[in-house]
Amino acid sequence: MRNRLVVVTIVVAGSAVLGFTQESPTSSVFTAAQAAAGRTAYESVCFNCHQASLAGRRGEPGELPPVASLPQDMQKAIKNAGGKVPPLAGPDFLARWAERTTADLSKRVKVASPFLKAVTPPLAEDLDENAYLNLTAFILQANGARAGAQELTETTAVPLRAVAPGVSSRPALSARDLEVSSAVGTYCSGCHDGRMRSPSGILLDQLDATQISTNREVWSRAYRQLQAGTMPPVGAPRPNRATSDAVLVSIEEALGASAGRLQAANSLAVANRLATLLWNGEPDASLLDAAQRHRLSDPVTLQLQIHRMLADDRAQAFVSNFFVPWLELDKLSKSDPDKKFFPDYDVSLRDSLAKETELFVLGQLRDDRDPVELWTADSTFLNEQLANHYGIPNVSGSQFRRVSLSSPERQGLLGQGSILMVTSRHQHGVDAAYTTPATRAKWVRLHFLGAPLPRPFPGAQPVKPELPITPQTRVLPAEPCTNCHRNFFPLGYALENFDPLGRWRTYDQVGPVDASGTFVDGTSTNGVVELRRVLLQRPEAFRTTITEKLLVYSSTGSVPASSGSTETLIRARQILRSMQNASWSAVIAAVVQAEPLATK
Questions:
Q1: Could you state, in order of their start, the residue ranges of all structural domains in the chain?
Q2: Does residue 141 register a pLDDT over 80?
Q3: pTM of the model
Q4: Helices (H), 147-238
Q5: Is 591 within 8 Å of 550 (Cβ atoms)?
Q6: Considering the chain, what percentage of its residues have pLDDT values greater than 70?
Q7: What φ, ψ does residue 308 adopt, rounded to 5°?
Q8: I need a surface site. Which of 228, 358, 465, 562 has the fewest CB within 10 A?
Q9: Which residue(s) pair with 419 in the sheet?
Q10: What are the beta bridge partners of residue 518?
Q11: Residues 208, 146 contacting (CB under 8 angstroms)
């Protein structure tokens, strides 16, 4: 086999000399940001004239393909005013391109890109050498090259075949992959370049859209942040929803979430897993009979069994063993509010708060609601003591019953005292009377959005425990505190109308409650109702979160506190993509049908 040739630029004493050598290993000589800028120039300048509708006008500009079809059309032909340019392959073309790059661009010639003649198009007069380098980076990316940390310059703009093996040896990027690569270059690579560090000093991962399948952990973290809307950070440019959704789909597919249905377990295994999940016990006669008849592979039969089992008193085990630790209600037993600040508190109130949430969750399961309705339901379960605590009239007696909520502030989990109490400080001490926005914000972020928490900044300035915490966090210095806090603290600020026991208040220890905040995407909110509205713009984030938790619990019997793994993310997305309408029975059925997760 003959050695293939590739053009390289050898820098000698600061000058560029053209030469030939054997093909060198694949490397990256342009950044994603350059490719993204090149795409913008392509669309706003080049394609402005070089499109089918204008072909033959304005000095007969040749047709260029739109970005959506660029990867396919680029290999066929890129036209210019003088006719077809050869595909981006072959030493002759590479030599001509390299000569232009090293000679023309250094002299700031106005047209020196690989696909234009050395003439000046009407709308290209203001393009400088950087613009042409960006255009070149974009074309390389469209043909399969991957971005890196090194910038394309007039002395590094070679070798083409080494940096873009797809030019001659592999298919060009698909339109969707090109979209992802462009979005990453525009919105992510400014920070995620493998060199910058977070405010906490952690080296940020380099995001390369052509290497998703080989950097699974990095991209699963990126997926969670993007799905939750917690990145890009405050103040940074953000993709629109359509672009964000397209990127999420591309990441899912690259990670393998579109690779068919999950392998189903056999009927007896499904029966055992279902009984363990819902009852923490053995299958009963009805479930065993369905399994032995191989009927649990039928979706209708399986969901009917789930409905029947959830209606059974034994389903309380599912709430106690999964939902109580997941929601962190098991921490309530450690809470000991200081009677100096909360003289009306007693243990029976704490128990009633926990009972409300347990009955509420069980009701949602039995009604087979969409899991997202845990956050939106307009009814709950109260007795007289708890109704008085919330200021809800016309509830008498110690018996719990379903009560419709007339006030939207109390709807769903965010209005329940158990959650608000467990996310407050209740150890005796000088700060025991205050809410803490950090704890509440972290709880919302982990339980609804499923996004990893920011790393704490080492040596960050502490708040003064003898003063209310929330007002102090609003006036901390920008570096290192606020620039990080503002990415998630507003989730906690929105709950400030609830005191540490979950009672509604309009005044705190320093004056009128301030529940205002601006979320990471720039949305201004004030209070729990608006917080809920913002969260519900990302329902798939919660559906993914709860499905991952159920997958782990079904396989291991434990409830992880942190975000899931790449494997749980892929499986959760496979499950949810297969559903037309999400419901508790549909999610549970899919979880018990899938093979258990591998355990270490």
A1: 5-171, 181-255, 267-307+557-593, 324-458+466-535
A2: no
A3: 0.72
A4: 160-163, 175-187, 216-228
A5: yes
A6: 64
A7: -60, -45
A8: 562
A9: none
A10: 524
A11: yes
